[in-house]
Write a structure and sequence with these properties.
The protein is an alpha+beta fold and about 650 residues long. About 20% of the residues lie in helices and about 40% in strands. A hairpin with a 5-residue loop joins strand 1 and strand 2. The protein starts with 5 loop residues before the first helix and ends with a strand.
Length: about 650
């Protein structure tokens, strides 16, 4: 999406001829002439591998023509402690994405005795599209053995980007980490560090250049943990071009600049296009609808009649051609929506945000690197749609675009002039009560105690329905049958299903009415004879449950995809002449709270009236994120459902 604006960005940067002859810093950067194997601590030798040096130089420099280019230099030393590390590192992969020129490459292996093996550049291969990830240079490392070190340096000349993200923490520990951002002294770049990477130091001692340098002697490994936002939790740096001496005091590429640019690309269309969108609105017959009904109708119309493409050709941006061809890219479909809502008299604001599990939107640092994904906000009803997400509907946008901030762009008029103004606001997550899976079971034992038979009904709403309801109508009949059976066979394939049916799969019901699956089920999996008693595995009737173990010390906060809940109601008819001797096992109440209000819980209870046993289970997570200090409480709630899974009721004769 950001590529659309690169041409606009160039307008901000007049280049200066007097900066063209300044020496490039990467040209003098080199490795040690006489290297020796590093001495590791006992702890470091136990690592699979360890990065002993991790240096990256991002150097902006003018060409002879006055163009601003970016030179990226990477220098790494990797210590190989295990056979696995040799296997993982004996080939080096260098991405050539957005590269103008491959400037230089050298590599060597240093054995534990100090023997040096240099890279034979004839062994470097270029792959045009490696595993569908674009062009790469790939080379095998010679001389890799236990205790050896692989060292390499390369430099790429790339197209300039005035915003950037650098990740500095991985699953491997790193020592001597350094990131330099070097730029001509007529420009000013700014950098902001996240997740405890040290702040940058400014160096103005280089003639004609300024260097921002961030260093860390050691960065511990960060392993991916369940229920976390791994990428967002890693150390990283965001940087941007902030000032140009040709415009003293004026900050460049601000949020308002972004609002103006995105306004031009999404709000403005031709008079002919407006006429075409007016005709579409007339066809929808919106006159007697309220605001929400109009929004839903327009969204449904677009999402059922237009396809989204990733192509960037002009046809997919132009509203007239989009209406004619029924194809658009993300920006083109937003333009269509904007025109339709404007004609329908619906106040609509463009919102730009990013996936919070990748990085948290930080409105205090105005890098456009956060502006990755589109939403549309409707102040009249205080809710959103995701315009380029065909499987989402009003009120439910991709879950990871919620519980974060975004750039809201509002149209303003100054006389005849129209533009967009920006405001950073929160994109709230839907309440947990809107995303529920509810399970209802009516259970009897077979007359001969050979198994159980039950009627089962599953209902799904909100995000819990999103995986099934929007796609159901597009599935072949055989796949529909497989899906229904998968949702009903909560006890596994030993069960048999009959009289299965689904409800609320029409377009108007998608993420509005519950997606419902129900049927009859027979199985022997939940009942077992033990002498003159029967063991009824009632816990298995809620389906398999996840268990959360944490052998190592937890490092990251808890983060769920979305707020949600589960409700289970089990009605069991106790056979004549039998009783249950351990019903108290059904009472579980594990929860955590803030300000006397529960934030998460697993609660099960029962009622016994005559031979009718009713078990009710409530499990819910009312917040998306919990601090590290709450991890143990979260773990206990998660594991409570697994504990219920293990409950076995004992049926014995009265």
């Amino acid at each position: 999406m950001k590529k659309v604006f690169y041409a606009i960005l160039l307008l901000f940067i007049p280049f200066f001829a007097n900066a063209q002859n300044v020496a490039k810093q990467y040209e003098s950067y080199d490795w040690e002439k006489d290297p020796h194997p590093h001495i590791l601590s006992e702890t470091e030798t136990k690592e699979n591998d360890i990065i002993l040096k991790d240096v990256k130089l991002l150097e902006y420099a003018y060409s002879e023509k006055g163009d601003l280019n970016l030179y990226v230099t990477v220098h790494k030393i990797i210590r190989l402690n295990t056979d696995k590390s040799i296997e993982e590192n004996n080939k080096i992969y260098i991405s050539l994405r957005e590269m103008m020129e491959f400037v230089d490459l050298k590599a060597r292996t240093i054995s534990k005795t100090g023997k040096i093996t240099l890279l034979d550049k004839n062994n470097v291969k270029e792959v045009e599209n490696f595993e569908n990830s674009g062009p790469f240079k790939i080379f095998a490392v010679e001389g890799a053995e236990l205790g050896s070190e692989i060292e390499y340096i390369y430099t790429l000349k790339k197209y300039s980007s005035y915003f950037g993200t650098e990740r500095l923490q991985y699953t491997t520990p790193r020592k001597n980490v350094r990131l330099d951002i070097i730029f001509p002294d007529n420009l000013t770049f700014e950098a902001k560090c996240y997740n405890h990477f040290p702040e940058f130091i400014k160096d103005s001692s280089i003639i004609g250049k300024i260097r921002l340098s961030g260093k860390a002697d050691y960065i511990p490994a960060l392993k991916e943990e369940k229920y976390s936002a791994y990428d967002a939790d890693r150390m990283r740096v965001e940087y941007k071009l902030a000032y140009n001496k040709s415009k003293p005091g004026k900050r460049l590429l601000t949020w308002n600049d972004a609002a103006e640019s995105y306004y031009k690309s999404t709000y403005e269309i031709s008079s002919k296009a407006k006429s075409r969108t007016h005709d579409l609105v007339k066809q929808m017959d919106l006159a007697k609808m309220n605001a929400e009904e109009k929004i839903r109708t327009i969204e449904s119309y677009v999402k059922t009649k237009f396809a989204i493409s990733t192509e960037t050709k002009e046809d997919f941006y132009d509203v007239e051609r989009i209406i004619k061809n029924k194809y658009a890219n993300a920006t083109g479909i937003v333009k269509l929506y904007m025109a339709l809502f404007d004609d329908a008299g619906i106040d609509c604001q463009l919102v730009l945000t990013c996936d919070r599990t990748n990085k948290k939107f930080d409105g205090t640092f105005d890098t456009w690197n956060y502006l990755n994904d589109y939403l549309l906000y409707f102040p009249q009803v205080n809710n959103f749609i995701a315009p380029d997400q065909p499987l989402m509907r009003f009120g439910f946008v991709p879950a990871t675009f919620t519980n974060t901030d975004g750039l809201f762009i509002k149209k303003v008029s100054i006389g005849d002039y129209e533009t967009g103004v920006s405001k950073i606001k929160n994109i709230p997550a839907p309440n947990y009560t809107l995303s529920y899976n509810k399970l209802y079971e009516d259970i009897d034992l077979e007359p001969d105690f050979s198994g159980i038979k039950m009627h089962i009904k599953q209902t799904y709403t909100g995000y819990e329905a999103q995986a099934y309801q929007p796609i159901y109508g597009f599935l072949p009949d055989e796949d529909k049958k497989k899906l229904i059976e998968a949702l009903l066979k909560i006890l596994g394939n030993e069960s048999t299903v009959s009289n299965a049916k689904v409800s609320n799969v029409d377009e108007a019901s998608i993420l509005v009415n519950p997606f419902i699956v129900e049927g009859d089920l027979k199985t022997s999996a939940a009942l077992e004879k033990a002498g003159n008693k029967y063991l009824f595995k009632i816990g298995t009737l809620i389906g398999p449950q996840a268990e959360l173990y944490q052998e190592d010390e937890r490092k990251t906060d808890v983060e769920n995809q979305f707020n949600h809940g589960y409700y289970r109601e089990i009605n069991f008819t106790i056979p004549e002449g039998y009783k249950i001797s351990n019903t108290d096992a059904l009472n579980i109440d594990v929860f955590d709270s803030e300000n006397s209000e529960r934030t998460m819980e697993f609660k099960s209870s029962f009622k016994l009236e005559g031979n009718k046993l009713k078990v009710i289970i409530d499990e819910d997570y009312r917040k998306i994120d919990f601090p590290l200090a709450k991890f143990e409480a979260f773990r206990k709630v998660i594991n409570a459902s697994a504990d219920f899974n293990k409950i076995v009721l004992v049926l014995e004769k009265k």
